[in-house]
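Reference record
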Amino acid sequence: MGHPAAAQGGGAVQGDATSSAGSGDGSLYQKTVLDCGVRVLTETIPSVRSVSAGIWVRVGSRDEPDEKAGVSHLIEHMVFKGTKRRRMHQIARRLESVGGYLNAFTGKEYTCYYARALDEQVVRAIDTIVDLALNPVFPEKELAKEKEVVLEEMKMYEDSPEDVAFDRFERSVYTGHPFGRPIIGTPETVQELTRQDLIAYRARHYGPEHLVLSVAGNVDHKRVVSLAKQAFQNVDHAPAVNGRDRLAAYTPDFVRESKPIQQAHVVIGRRGVDINDPLRSALSILNTVLGGGMSSRLNQRIREKYGYCYHISSFLNMHSDTGDLGIYLATDPVRIPHATRLVFKELTQLRDKPVSERLLGQARSQVKGHLMLGLESMSNRMMRMARQELLLGRFLSLDEVLDEVNGVTRTDLQEAAERMYARDMFTVVELVPDEASP
């Protein structure tokens, strides 16, 4: 399967130029690239009374040198501690005082500052997130305190066995690459970060060519562009950033670690494909068949038939140039061998025997339903637009995505399973209670 070539909208445009496309559900997608390089995306849905706005920066944990691990995440925290225009308490009240909210997150490939508010507050929402992204002052007295907050966040993750198991999985699957490090960094690297480190890193990566303003809801594109022009008129141009590091070849691994926990937490997975891979929709449907919900094969066989676990699911992550996929479950340590064999049995069956047309139809409907229900959220729409721009470089309308999903055949599913479900290519991570360690 290839990618549909229709409905551009997100195609490259030069200068302060605008392109548009129907989203497939009555909304209107528009994109303008400002002269300074900032990309402005809107999806107009007149039937709602709210807006979701986000400033997205093409920088994440994968862009950090080892000795500065966690700097992207710390910057995301510190922008809320004050800007050139507002103090910390003013930022906190800026959206809450009008019934909205303000937040941020850091990923492996991007950082996002976002707000949700009534449509009548769109100016306030955009002004606030732009202020956070462009004008942080990183007060020295707050930096020491915020480092302690981040260290407590690390402890929280370490107290979550599922998070620890996935952390060890990523470390193994992406050995030697920043993708394998926790987004949050390590206690050692975070404690060593200075205010000057934050200033230099932000100056290097927050240039206009790396910024995307994404707004979804009851908005007017021309008005958003006008607001963006004013907000970014004095933005500094960052120096050119070198290309991102390539990943080394993947080698399967086995990792076993003990902690003072009650259950064993198991991740069975491998390096996957990037978001541009022709089999992306087939893999999405295959992931749904395997472990997407109560009716999935894994849930029906391992939970319902044998009672081996409370939770079991499959996952599929696709980034700009790589990805990963696999299965997660939590079970009693004595059941790990049998549960693992059952997992691989399901993988083998998907490789060796095409799914029925009925099951394929059900999985298609499940994927489409999940997508369309998600589009009822303005935040999801805003994030979908920005991720497509940053990872794909274009906008995929709802109709395009549905056509891709509807075009997946039983042969596509089996081809995807044959490509990805070879047993000897899986990494296995077992996080077990202390007494279960050998």
DSSP finds 15 helices and twelve strands in the chain.
